[in-house]
From TrEMBL, chain B:
This is ABC transporter permease subunit. Belongs to the binding-protein-dependent transport system permease family. One of its GO terms (cellular component) is plasma membrane. The keyword Transport applies. The lineage of its organism: Bacteria, Bacillati, Actinomycetota, Actinomycetes, Micrococcales.
Length: 306, 314
């Protein structure tokens, strides 16, 4: 706030102090103590709801199969975390690490390509005038309205005819098309890439591709991270598609692999499924926490207002 | 271009008919940006729809002697008639409709309420809460379902153990309860995600509107209801349509609960019904007909919801 003040005001100490006091005091003026406590109480209660299963998962991953059944579910008992982790990574000749790598590959490659393809298309819809633009956008949004799971069985039949079933491509190709990326790409391009800047770059002789890659993508970079994050998560989390497409266990993503272990109820698998689940969630949680800063980089917000 | 070479852009945009006759500028760039996506879109979205519709008009019949390739026979609308006359289909459809009517409003109402609280002047540590709420979205749906399945299962559940110690018989897997146990899983996974969309839409509202309302003596509730909620309507439409579509293709939760709950049959929801028809009975025609019907239902409900949600009050 003070940074935007004109230099003249900096000299006028009194006015500046007065202004700052008003900014600082503003929330307290409008919010009673009771309202603040009630708000924080409600927010905390909701946080407990969201955290309980995760807490249970963490606690349970430290327990042996017998302790899982004999001890208080929400508190630690015997500490078998290391045994469990070893069990997860050695079961079926270390198939679990293969599943993790597969998930990273599917979600990483698929996420990057889906983000670029979708955002480029959204950018074109936002920044160029051409005939059929509305129809194009409408068709893509129509794709958003379509329950994608319903396409999986016909896709399986199509893929089986061209020999793509039970391969890496069967999982990656459908993931490349994310209508939501187009939607977000259009919204963000319209909001954060000024037409004047594109015109100026054109006058300087830059080609359209170069403008997109050097100006468009850079101004949309917080948006790109967001789109990538969501695409990555949706691929990482996908279960129905690999369930239908893959039969070879060594191609499974981690979700399908764990589900497979889960369904084998006759074997005492609980500790392996629970610890494996915790391990499979960690990469996503880390990604979310570390990419937090990106979303809030207010690059786009700044240009929306101007 | 030649018709109005000297007219500046703002003036030109008022002359819509003149613009329309101009050849598209930057044709190459536009194609370069849109064609890769659209080509894949056609391959992965449009082709399967057409394939599905065609498939739904055929039935697979084994040839007379029972040997050799099964034949595809055109049966017209027979698969649709079969679906519409199938009590399993109606039961499955009924379940997800009931699920959606309750779960979607509960989840979105909760998300809106939490977003408003986070956006209010009374909130503190907003970024901490935001992360905590969003955390479940980082848990893959099927893993979340497995996690909750354990939290529901009588042998493992700490909740059931609590209930036992207090003399209350908790049964999360009973025929009348299990649908709501699943609704809880879906809500747990997606509420934070929807909350984030609504919250970012809330935060985009210019703050001076609230200042003005506060100066006029409006309460925070009044500001939330009369200024904030109307302006996040597009976000509510987006999350609402998303949730409706998600509900209609509900699969992870019932598929996982099927393993531990007798009340969840292998055709509990339409997606499971279609999958069973396709891969267990090899009846792709019937599976396609079910999918097409479900897509039509999804489209109709989304359109109705969109109409209602975007209806202007003016």
């Amino acid at each position: 706030m003070t940074a935007t003040l004109p230099p003249k005001a900096a000299v006028d100490e009194g006015a500046r102090r007065q202004r700052r006091r008003r900014d600082d005091a503003e929330p307290e003026l409008t919010v009673s103590r009771g309202a603040a406590i009630a708000t924080l109480g409600a927010l905390t209660l909701a946080a407990v709801y969201f955290l309980i299963p995760i807490w249970w998962l963490i606690v349970s991953s430290t327990k042996s199969n017998t302790a899982l059944f004999n001890s208080n579910g929400f508190w630690f008992s015997d500490l078998s975390l290391i045994d469990n982790v070893v069990d997860v990574f050695t079961r079926q000749n270390g198939l679990f690490s293969r599943w993790l790598l597969n998930s990273v590959l599917y979600a990483g490659v698929g996420g990057i390509l889906a983000t670029l393809l979708g955002v480029a298309c959204g950018y074109a819809i936002a920044k160029y005038e051409f005939r059929g633009r509305g129809l194009l956008f409408g068709t893509i949004l129509g794709g958003l309205l379509l329950p994608a799971a319903l396409l999986t069985v016909p896709l399986y039949l199509m893929f089986s005819q061209i020999g793509l079933v039970n391969s890496v491509w069967a999982v990656i190709i459908p993931a490349l098309v994310n209508p939501f990326a187009v939607y977000l790409g259009r919204v963000y391009a319209a909001a954060s890439v000024p037409d004047e800047l594109i015109e100026a770059a054109r006058l300087d002789g830059a080609g359209e591709l170069r403008i997109f890659f050097t100006i468009g993508l850079r101004l949309m970079s917080p948006a790109l991270v967001t789109v990538f994050l969501f695409t990555f998560v949706s691929i990482w989390n996908n279960f129905f598609l690999p369930l239908i497409m893959l039969t070879d266990q060594s191609l499974y993503p981690v979700t399908l692999g764990l589900y497979n272990w889960y369904t084998a109820t006759r074997e005492a698998n609980y500790n392996v499924v629970i610890t494996g689940s915790l391990i499979s969630v960690i990469p996503l949680v880390v990604a979310f926490l570390s990419l937090q800063r990106f979303w809030r980089a207010g690059l786009s917000a700044g240009s929306v207002k101007s | 271009m030649t018709a109005a070479p000297l007219i500046d852009r703002r003036a030109g945009s008022e002359l819509r008919p003149a613009l329309r006759r101009r050849p598209t500028r930057f044709r190459g760039a536009i194609l370069m940006f849109t064609v890769p996506f659209m080509a894949l879109f056609v391959f992965v979205y449009v082709a399967p729809i057409i394939y599905s519709v065609v498939q739904s008009l055929f039935a697979t019949q084994s040839s007379g002697l029972g040997f050799g390739e099964p034949e595809q026979v055109f049966v017209g609308a027979a698969n649709y008639a079969k679906a519409l006359g199938d009590t399993e289909f109606w039961a499955a459809l009924g379940r997800i409709l009931l699920f959606g009517i309750v779960q979607v409003p509960v989840m979105l109402g909760g998300a809106l309420l939490l977003a408003l609280l986070l956006d209010s002047a009374a909130a503190r540590w907003v970024s901490v809460y935001r992360v905590l709420y969003f955390l479940p979205y980082a848990v893959p749906g099927v893993i979340a379902a497995v996690l909750w399945a354990y939290l529901y299962s009588p042998a493992l559940s700490p909740f059931v153990a609590w209930g036992d110690s207090m003399g209350i018989d908790l049964d999360f897997l009973g025929p009348n309860v299990v649908l709501w146990s699943m609704a809880n899983i879906t809500t747990w996974v997606f509420m934070g995600y929807n909350l984030l969309i609504i919250l970012s839409s809330l935060q985009a509202i210019p703050r001076d509107q609230f200042e003005a309302a506060r100066l006029d003596g409006a309460s925070e509730w009044r500001i939330a209801w009369s200024i904030k909620v109307p302006q996040v309507r597009p976000a509510l439409v987006l999350t609402g349509v998303n949730s409706i579509i998600g509900t209609l293709q509900l699969f992870n939760e019932p598929q996982v609960m099927h393993v531990i709950a007798d009340a969840v049959s292998s055709s509990y929801v339409p997606t499971m019904l279609a999958m069973g028809a396709a891969f267990v009975k090899n009846d792709f025609g019937y599976a396609s007909a079910v999918s097409v019907l479900l897509a039509i239902v999804a489209g109709l409900i989304s359109i109705v919801y969109y109409r209602i949600a975007m209806r202007s009050d003016a």
